[in-house]
Amino acid sequence: MQNRIKAPIARVVDLVKRYYLESVTVSALSGVSLEFAEGDFIALMGPSGSGKSTLLNLLGCLDRPTSGEYYLGHDNVAYMEDDDLSDVRSRYIGFIFQSYNLLAQYTVVENIEVPLLYQGARLNAKTRERCISLAEMVGLGNRLDHRPMQLSGGQQQRVAIARALVNDPHVILADEPTGNLDSKTSDEIMMLLTELNKAGKTIIMVTHENDIASWARRVVRMRDGRVESDERNKPVPLAPPTGDVADVLPQVLAADGMLDQTDIADAESDR
Ligand SMILES: Nc1ncnc2c1ncn2[C@@H]1O[C@H](COP(=O)(O)OP(=O)(O)OP(=O)(O)O)[C@@H](O)[C@H]1O
Ligand SMILES: [Mg+2]
Questions:
Q1: Which helix H or strand E contains 11, and what residues bound it?
Q2: Which helix (H) or strand (E) holds 262?
Q3: Of all atoms in ligand 1, which is nearest to the CA of residue 29?
Q4: E strands, 102-225, in order
Q5: Residue of 17, 22, 26, 59 to test ligand 1 pocket, by largest number of atoms within 8 Å of CB
């Protein structure tokens, strides 16, 4: 059938997550139903404690819900066993965290390689080449052998983004990716995420800041473990480009990583 609406890439139905502590039960999510379209860019907002990270962790298969359903593609992944969950995670999902979570003893390229190891892949000249091209794509081609300590916060977050892309994931989950960065560096990271979204990646990002959320196509606000509002700023592209980002996005940021304000203004007027 033509003009058929595409199935969402991810869908949660009446998702509930409770934490049972010694004497109290905390309801982190109290019945969340949301659909995420392929190629969308969603900002999850809401006060501290409203359940944003809990939802992101469930979407990332890092945890299981107390009740409800989670469909990733066609599969209900809500109650999979640990091994299956980690398999799904390494094939479908890329993570970016506020505190970068890089391994201090590894170089830039080695950090980007880590998810391949978890996936059980063998590292060879070809995987190395791929990691180098991802490092180049995020503007770190001249920092390949640096360790995290030798990089700025924005550069470390760019390594984390390259690492999130190494498995060519369907969905990128980002929990406050600019939370530790100044506003200019935050804009660089948001430009990078915007380019990845234009290249077809579905992005779900938690943020506290309206400025950061305004880069997204859709803003979902949570309160007390429920969806409070759901607004669309920009349409979802009808036919998101497919293909590996390492091929379609040769280099998003300048090699030294520093953009001037005109680049950022151009990108903002472009969105
Ligand atoms: N592992 C846990 N054990 C017990 N309670 C938890 C756990 N993780 C989260 N919670 C509780 O669940 C609720 C939602 O937490 P969550 O981390 O999802 O909030 P958040 O919206 O991400 O907040 P923030 O903006 O501060 O990061 C909070 O009340 C929190 O205390
Ligand atoms: Mg959180």
A1: strand 10-20
A2: helix 261-270
A3: 14
A4: 171-175, 202-206, 218-223
A5: 26
How confident is the model over 185-240, as pLDDT tens digits? 999 999 999 999 998 899 999 999 999 999 999 999 999 999 999 999 999 988 76
Give the residues surrounding ligand 1 with Cβ less than 6 Å away: 19, 21, 26, 28, 46, 48-54
Tell me which DSSP letter residue 120 carries: T
Query: What does the pLDDT look like over 97-114, one tens digit per residue?
Result: 999 999 999 999 999 999
- Would you say 104 and 95 are in contact if contact means Cβ atoms under 8 Å apart? no
pTM for the structure as a whole: 0.89
Cα separation, 156 vs 133, whole angstroms: 16
Contact 51, 26 (CB under 8 A): no
Nearest CA residue ID for atom 16, ligand 1: 51
**Which atom of ligand 1 lies nearest, measured to the CA of 222?**
21
pLDDT of residue 2: 43
> Which residues in the chain land under pLDDT 50?
1-4, 251, 253-260
Q: Where are the domains of the chain?
A: 11-270
Least distant ligand from the CA of 49: 1
Give the ligand at the shortest distance from the Cα of 51: 1
Nearest ligand 1 atom to the CA of 225 is 14
Give ion ligand 2 contacts, CB < 5 A.
53
Which CATH fold topology does 11-270 show? Rossmann fold (3.40.50)
- Give Cα 182 distance to the centre of its chain: 19
